[in-house]
């Protein structure tokens, strides 16, 4: 049953409260019916659950944050255990996320810096450092620690709660089975190529879509492989005929468009010619994070400039 | 001596004319002196030479274009020789450029299409198809042929002359020794990272610079390797301390910046958090074409969008 | 009857040829039927007509260009008539376009420059200077003359023919009645606002749409007034509910979006606050040129940057 | 003396603390000397002062926020006084800022909405709503109230403290005389135009710079006038020869570049011609907020797209 599972670290009251107020058999049946009509997908469910935290007071906020394990324990098994860290067991969910952190390659200098920042952080804010980035590298963790350690207390509580919400959302998604008859969480990926030199859709442009996947470890370091998923040619409106990814294909991870921009512009007599084009193959690497959303990832391109954005 | 060499395919009169009007010992010495004072670099030299073509009439233009070999002979050794192609020998310069074309992998359908377009082109314009793109793939050639075969006659003469000028410029650069005491052709590469979410330079961002080089051939296909050249961290103004490439390092070819955008933004409490960032490692692949110019290749980036352009 | 009218300056053979080959009663009826099925709108009609010029030879091209009046006669009534200009009468269509040129305010220096460039142009290319810009100012004309006078002969024939085609297209549109039961030429205007700081549509943003119209003349100078046409608020997808302009409202001319960006971002706690926002009211002025097309004119905006483009 | 003045609303301890720790005559003279060497401009001074707030605890934060007057009293004189509002007098500084709010035109519906949101806000957060936007319109205030009223308590304390810091900074600047021998606060404005269709600086483009100033009131409504300050033509690098504004000219306020993009592109033979250019005169309106900073406000433009950003 969904409402037994831990999405907020060792803090079941949040989900329970939602359940008791909206779904419990002890409630008037019209309430339960209204809930079921309202909560038509997992996103709406989560939007309601997380309001209980947002509207909570400082005590509730600090309690929740303090339930999280110290990052040191997660990423550096050599950390000497102190008393405060003993109090917090690491949940199964947290341990699984730890496995992906890829932080086993700290140099001695980096380790010193990391422990120093982490200690400053705990002393200043009195709760552990929390980071909701999947596959964070040591650089990500150090950058986040450095930036956040000098925040004001309220800035940092806000930021840490965002991380907690994000972690809860990611855990929730892994635990929700697709509803019967459906296929994936509803998100999908689309593309569009605009030719900003000619003011028109870029039709007939070849595009490839790759996915980055973990390759074999080399000398203790994580490697990545780029797998070609699909090839496309843009239609007369500069678009693909349908989503590039949808359903179960539309999975969290890192992807890359590869646009054959140089070949496209070769068909025009452009005013300023390049023997080696400034833009030839344009790679555009992006993360799909939320499998319930539409990701529109377009390219606006001239022979001398381009831009992209997360559209919708 | 520079002015003996062939930069325009089998058309020595262009360079000779420049020489006779500006540098010949038979001229008044004040003219030669003025020339030497004016022509301080190879770019100014070439800008003057190519005016002789630009200001030429249609006959001169067609003559020049017809001196070029048929692309078929260059890229498809199996082409049956016809009478018209026999008239034009392929110069040494042209043959060397041919070697890089990488067009040996035409499928039967592509070969048919290619010959058909090429024949249409020759029949319509009565001069051979000319393309000044280094390392053009079969897709580049087919795209250019398809686009240009339906141009008007004047559009296509203009376009073909641009290609001819470009080829001449590339040949000229390979033949000019660096002037004494100098080091390279004077071009250099710079970078700048602007954080458009915060309206400030992006300081402390890690950047890597790669160069693409030919790898070992595999099954008759060209492969490429990406070589790490340098690593940088942006300074407080979001820039590098000095050019990334200059002097002899600043060579024609394909390069790639790799920006560690995700790590950079991890230090802020951004309003909309991604477990898998939309932008994490941002690759930016670009060609350096003209070794005499300044290439400024910046990144303007928020967690959800970015753009780049050839600056100066 | 459409095919009697002059869209190409004193050169009726172009439209006549189309008529004789595709629509003449003397043709086999299957040809005429096929034409009527194929030519479903004025754009397709024009695309076919202009091929006759594109595929024409140099003589046809020069003849057509030489039918056009000298720009001097059009914009500067004080021009002394020479023999060549006498040969070319100014058609009614051309005279009407002249009225809008707004070039009556040349200073003596500008007049000298203008005549000098115009004479160089005619001497170099042996046809008159042609410019298809509506409401061109003296700056536009001088800029175009300066840029084009140093082109090669083929570049300039190409460019001048583009102007001629454009003028023909604009004349054609003024002469085509809307088909029965329709309403305008089919073009329409849409908008979209993306928030690139938050990676989401910008919902709830106020937008105004203005049209620029000629105001009363002041001291012999053209003035413009900005008329508010409509006000909008973006929906949850950052779009308007339907086209902003369509049908007869969608008219050639200059327009301006006004986006209340500062008010929109005031609802967020942005990281770097401005007492006077860098972006508050963002004006975006654009021309609608072709009443048969879809103009998508979006805004991608953070508190510190924005971009726009002609989309579709 | 600078350190007597109120920059933080009725909260002198902040500046006093800085003074006592760094500048008081009772301190060891080496400390005072070090302070004077370190604090070379007003920005560095303020960066140190505001740390006392940032590092303060929740009690200090709430105390400071509660010293501010209720926005209702400032902008709507008809607000019935309640007990809580009586406790907080409005300082002279606050009253002056009030005058500019331009909120006297609330419709009855807007007034109702405004009071309702304001009451919700005070009840939820127990401190008054604070907004540091100069010349905020009623739309700005309503948008900010609506967005922030549903924040978590820590998010809103953070946001309100940013407003307080910003107000303090703006007050500080109005009270600092320029140092002897200097001229203004050191900020300046620059521009750059890149032609992204041709991959080069846009040279020879005309630019005008306007300033928006308050015009005469009309029917009780604020009006604005646009005053032409200067005209420029871009140099061969697409830049202006020196800052557009600096010294005392570089003043807080709203400005507008006007770029004559259409005239610039008229000199090229562009591939897709517009009778009414998509981009002709491009206005770019921006605020100068901080007179100590460099504002680089460039334009990247093709005939069909443009972008801008706050650079440095």
Describe this structure in words.
Chain A has 312 residues and is α+β, with helices and mostly antiparallel strands. In chain A, 37% of the residues lie in helices and 18% in strands. In chain A, strand 10 and strand 11 form a beta hairpin. In chain A, helix 3 (42-54) runs antiparallel to helix 10 and helix 8 packs parallel to helix 9. The longest helix of chain A has 23 residues, at 153-175. In chain A, 41% of the residues are buried. Residues 83-88 of chain A have low confidence and may be disordered. Chains A and B meet through helix 9, helix 10, strand 7, helix 11 and strand 8 of A and helix 9, helix 10, strand 7, helix 11 and strand 8 of B.
Number of strands of chain A: 11
Look at the structure and give the mean pLDDT of chain A: 87
Question: Strand order, biggest sheet of chain A?
Answer: 3-2-10-11
Outline of chain A, from the CA principal axes? globular
Quaternary class: homotetramer
Radius of gyration of chain A: 24 Å
Number of helices, counting only DSSP H or I runs of 4 residues or more of chain A? 11
End-to-end separation of chain A in angstroms reads: 33 Å
Unreliable segments of 5+ consecutive residues of chain A = 83-88
Could you name the key traits of this structure?
homotetramer, 312 residues, alpha+beta, 11 helices
SSE topology:
The structure is a homotetramer of 312-residue chains.
Chain A lengths: L12 H10 L6 H10 L3 H13 L3 H9 L4 H5 L7 H4 L5 H8 L8 H18 L12 H11 L4 H23 L12 E3 L2 E3 L4 E2 L4 E9 L9 E10 L11 E2 L6 E8 H5 L15 E8 L5 E3 L2 E4 L2 E5 L3
Parallel strand pairs in A: 1-9, 2-10
Antiparallel strand pairs in A: 1-6, 2-3, 4-5, 4-7, 7-8, 10-11
Helix pairs in contact in A: 1-3, 3-10, 8-9
